[in-house]
Amino acid sequence: MRLDLKEILRKDGTIPFSCTTDLSDLHFSAISRFLSPVSASGRVTAGAGVLTLTGTVSAQAICLCDRCGREFTREFRIPLDLPLAEDPQDAEDPDLYPIEEDGVDLDEIVSTAFVLGLETKLLCKPDCRGLCDRCGKNLNDGPCGCPAETDPRLAVLGQLLEQE
Ligand SMILES: [Zn+2]
Ligand SMILES: [Zn+2]
Question: Which end of the chain has a smaller Cβ tally under 10 Å, C or N?
Answer without folding.
Answer: C
